Amino acid sequence: MTKSALQIARAAYQPKLPKGLTGTVKAVAGAATQSVADQEEIKKLFPNTYGMPLIKFENTDETVDFPAMNVGVILSGGQAPGGHNVISGIFDGIKKLNKDSKLYGFILGPGGLVDHNYMELTADIIDEYRNTGGFDIIGSGRTKLEKEEQFEKGLEILKELNIKALVIIGGDDSNTNACVLAEYYAAKNCGVQVIGCPKTIDGDLKNEMIETSFGFDTACKTYAEVIGNIQRDCNSARKYWHFIKLMGRSASHIALECALQVQPNICIISEEVEAKDMSLDDIVTGIAQVVANRAAQGNNFGTVLIPEGLVEFIPAMKRLIAELNDFLAANAEEFSQIKKSHQRDYIIRKLSPENAAIYASLPEGVARQLSLDRDPHGNVQVSLIETEKLLSEMVAAKLAQWKEEGKYVGKFAAQHHFFGYEGRCAAPSNFDADYCYSLGYAASALIANGKTGYMSSVRNTTAPAEEWIAGGVPITMMMNMERRHGEMKPVIQKALVRLDGAPFKAFAAQRERWAVETDYVYPGPIQYFGPAEVCDQPTKTLQLEQGR
Ligand code: FBP
Fold first, then answer.
1. Domain, as residue range, for 455
2. What is the 3-state secondary structure (H, E, C) of 76-101?
3. How many Å lie between the centroid of ligand 1 and the Cα of residue 401?
4. How many whole angstroms from 249 Cα to the centroid of ligand 1?
5. How confident is the model over 425-446, as pLDDT tens digits?
6. Are residues 438 and 397 in the same domain?
7. Model-level pTM?
8. 424 known member of a binding site
């Protein structure tokens, strides 16, 4: 594998571990737990994994002999920086317990378990991937592990490879499924433990016990760097409004974090739009007003951050999407037979009058995007909806109308960006490198202590890494009952931006000033400081031109 100078330098980085995970590790059990809501139903559904205590790891002088164990690992869902470090943490953890332990990776996500597609992860392979971004060591996938026949197919290969425990690295849905699997194997006394690990750049898998999902830190720093670069361009050329959509699925955590880092002129927070029952026109008018105010000062430029899930939070759009979801699910066969050019009219005829009117008012591209296939979890694929174009087109129309009425005298030209895939596989920041390695290491300690149905956890993360607290949280503790695909299901609660939370309040306290002033912050690259052979290199083009 050809490596960049940065990869070579980063490979040598030794991630920091919390003190509790160094030396011999002892599991200390806390109080029994209960689910965040719907306790009776969840207890009934998870009789073997409900109510287990919180676990905290401490280091001890005792020496304990652990037998060799085989462990399996799966990367599930979207990529997030640091996944390779979780795997290297598990590897180092189980090898430290017994050098004959083995780690198997299931290829391309949960499907690899069901299809018996796997590889042994040896020291040589692990070393190639330490502190690198991406999930390419074994690949990832979005197959949902939820059916009994999948669990049984998985069990066959787990038994064949003598695997004692499986670590599923995923978001809220994948960890919910990990818990269902843990319960299934426990109920059948299969002798296979299942441990989850909190991954997603979206930042929406967090709660009282899980401070953050891994990858969020790096992804936000990467996006903030690029937005900062755009803001500098914007402030230099002074002729464009940049509409920047940011990944993050439903939650606006990424947009909010980037706003705090770069101080844009506008950042929309979906959760606020919903709470204030704002219409699409309210949002457009709000943006157009800021554009007009800045134009009045001679500033015909600016930046707008847009969370990718926005349309689902505009109440009227939400109602439209809900009806579309039900309609498309019930009429999938008939819809697939309709010619593309007739699909829009067909949908308009079938929807209720209120939703048909909204659907008809949307630009062609956005209307089409709303009718595309859902992901395997039944979600609209929000990353495919070009909200940045929808908003800028509507703002342009509003400004044209204001111009005719003599209310606006500026010039408006827009540029569009979508940042998502650019940040999901970035080289992990020091935080994510340490955090992920610790999560993996903690997972190995949970396995060694016979735990199942737990999510690996690392807390106190704003302190130096040595003071982090590693342990495990029973997954049932994070669950409640929610309606999914028309049925009530036990799921991990998704964490959206809290309007009473400190990050939103800090943003709300500043945004009016940011809208008027040009007080951009340019965070720069996260690897700005470092060895000269990494950071001070000219481009490859220049090096080749100069014969170096
Ligand atoms: P996860 O929830 O699986 O971590 O996905 C993160 C994410 O990057 C979302 O922000 C985005 O909406 C989605 O994946 C895109 O999915 P895909 O990779 O299938 O295009």
1. 55-215+428-473
2. ECCCCCCHHHHHHHHHHHHHHHCCCC
3. 37
4. 7
5. 999 999 999 999 999 999 999 9
6. no
7. 0.92
8. yes
